[in-house]
Every structure is written in structure tokens, then in C-alpha cells.
Design a protein that fits this description.
Layout lengths: L18 H13 L5 H36 L12 H8 L3 H14 L2 E4 L2 E4 L10 H7 L4 H26 L2 H11 L1 H4 L7 H19 L2 H14 L13 H13 L3 H20 L19
Antiparallel strand pairs: 1-2
Helix pairs in contact: 1-2, 2-4, 3-4, 6-9, 6-10, 6-12, 7-9, 7-11, 11-12
Length: 296
């Protein structure tokens, strides 16, 4: 774990010569009088580089996570410059290679831009979907709104996928969908909680993707589910009729009505989204991992 160095001014921390430099100088010194010094020197440098390569990735990950959280918490404003590689290397007591890798990760998340004049903070609206999970973990006040929006988007995608799939499904594929939604599969005798219908809905969504054979829908759905996973307490009573949802979905499939199926799903998730926004739906899971900014 990288421990940031906060004492003193950025870029003015005591510099320590990297271990790789010490080993390299030692190798050159002890080998200069040897006929095979060049070969031995290269071998030593390769071994040193090999040993140093593994922890660099770990240090870069720790640094990117910490900087990501600071950016999401508003410690840097959009358009503001991130400290230079040199300053960050001094702060975290690492080499600039680890800092460079961390900045690359931040750029891939869409929360910074690497420009000729330095690294600038990007507006959160330009970030990728991957920052949604950390946002949910970090911003207590924003969680109800974020979860509500997440559920609404997931429902819209599921409704779209359902309409497209039912319009092209074979009789065998329709039977498969009905089997997934059957009371026996959904364990309808259990309490009406999100967990009651989570598994059949996940199986249903997977079956829709198979029918549509749409990679983009699959990837987007996977991303949304990954951000939701572990962040809603699924043992709380559901504010919407989960059993009724599965029943109405099955009726629409039996009637071979794609538009009706999409409407049923949209209506359910719109209702769920509204109750989440109003604070009446399942709360955030207290056991979900919450990243905290560490200060030394």
C-alpha cells in the first residue's frame, strides 16, 4: 500500500535514490575490471528491472485509487491541474513510472485529461461508467439519486432488450423465457424482497441477450450490474410487487406482445426508481466496501 507523504511542500520531500539505481551502480563498480563485465552488468540490470516491475503495478493502482477518490470528492475542481509527476512521486515516495501508470488509469476512467501543459481534471459528466461504483461508496448524500438513476437506466435497457428479443424469439426460446419466469423457478413462496426475483431476472436478462445476440447490450448490462452489485441491501422488503412483475412479464410473453412486455418492465423499474429517490426503497448495504482517503 502506498502511503502518501503530506509533511512539507509538494515536490520538496527528501529524495531517496531508487534501489534500482543503487544496484545498478554497485553492479557496474564491481564488474568494471572483469573481462565479462558488460555481460554481468546487463544481467544485473535485467534482474533488478524484473524484481521492480511487479510492485510498480501495485503502487500505481494504490495511487490511482487515492487520486480518483480525491477527484470524485471534489478536492480538485474541473479544469484544475493535477500536481506534476515529480510532485506526486515525492508525495507518495515512489518513482515517476508508478505515477505515470496511475495517471494513465485516471485518464482511462475519463476523470483527467493528459494535455501538453499538464494533467487537467475533467468534469464528472465526462467520466466512464466505472466511476459509478466508487461514487456510490464515497458520496453519502448523492447515493439515493445515483441508485435511482442507475435502476432507471437498467430498467430501460432491460425493456429494450425484452422488446427486441420477443419480436424475434422462436417458440423454443419463448418457452425458455416462460420457464425462467415460472413460480417454481422464481421461488414465489418466499418473502417479497429484491432477492426473491433477482435470480430469475438475471437469468431472464441473460436469455434475452442470447436471443438478441447483441454484444453491446450485453456489455452495457454487465457494467450496470457490476456497479449495483453489493450496494443495495436485498433483504429489505421490496416497495414494488416483485411477484406481480414476473407474472405480468409471463403474460406478455404468452400473448406474444413485445410492446406490452417492454411496458411492464419499464413501469416496474420506473416505480422502483421513484421509490428509491424518495428514500422508501432498500437502503445501501452497510457491508459494502467504502474507500476512504488515507493520510499519513
Amino acid at each position: 500500500m502506498v502511503v502518501p507523504k503530506w509533511q512539507g511542500q509538494l515536490g520538496r520531500a527528501n529524495s531517496v535514490e531508487p534501489k534500482s539505481n543503487l544496484l545498478r551502480r554497485s553492479s557496474i563498480s564491481c564488474c568494471k575490471d572483469d573481462d565479462n563485465s558488460l555481460i554481468r552488468m546487463r544481467f544485473s540490470m535485467n534482474e533488478t528491472a524484473k524484481q521492480a516491475s511487479e510492485p510498480v503495478k501495485s503502487r500505481a493502482s494504490d495511487i490511482s485509487d487515492l487520486l480518483r477518490d480525491e477527484i470524485l470528492l471534489g478536492q480538485y475542481r474541473p479544469g484544475e491541474r493535477l500536481p506534476s509527476e515529480r510532485d506526486l512521486a515525492a508525495r507518495f515516495q515512489v518513482n515517476r513510472g508508478a505515477v505515470r501508470e496511475a495517471i494513465k488509469t485516471l485518464a482511462e476512467l475519463g476523470i483527467v485529461q493528459v494535455l501538453p501543459g499538464g494533467v487537467r481534471i475533467s468534469p464528472i459528466e465526462q467520466a466512464s461508467l466505472s466511476v459509478l461504483g466508487p461514487l456510490l461508496d464515497l458520496k453519502d448524500q448523492a447515493r439515493p439519486t445515483l441508485i435511482s438513476e442507475l435502476v432507471a437506466v437498467f430498467g430501460a435497457l432491460l425493456a429494450l432488450s425484452s422488446r427486441l428479443a420477443l419480436a424475434r424469439a422462436t417458440p423454443e426460446e419463448k418457452d425458455r423465457l416462460l420457464t425462467i419466469l415460472s413460480p417454481e423457478t422464481a421461488n414465489s413462496g418466499h418473502a417479497n424482497t429484491p432477492a426473491t426475483y433477482e435470480q430469475p431476472l438475471a437469468q431472464f436478462a441473460a436469455a434475452l441477450i442470447d436471443i438478441n445476440n447483441n454484444l453491446v447490450l450485453r456489455l452495457i448490462g454487465n457494467g450496470l450490474r457490476a456497479q449495483m452489485m453489493g450496494r443495495i441491501d436485498r433483504n429489505e422488503p421490496s416497495p414494488v410487487d416483485a411477484r406481480g412483475l414476473l407474472h405480468n412479464m409471463a403474460n406478455a410473453i404468452e400473448a406474444d406482445n413485445p410492446a406490452r412486455l417492454a411496458f411492464v418492465i419499464s413501469e416496474h423499474f420506473d416505480h422502483l426508481s421513484a421509490t428509491l429517490a424518495a428514500g422508501e426503497a432498500p437502503q445501501m448495504n452497510p457491508n459494502a466496501s467504502h474507500r476512504t482517503t488515507q493520510h499519513a
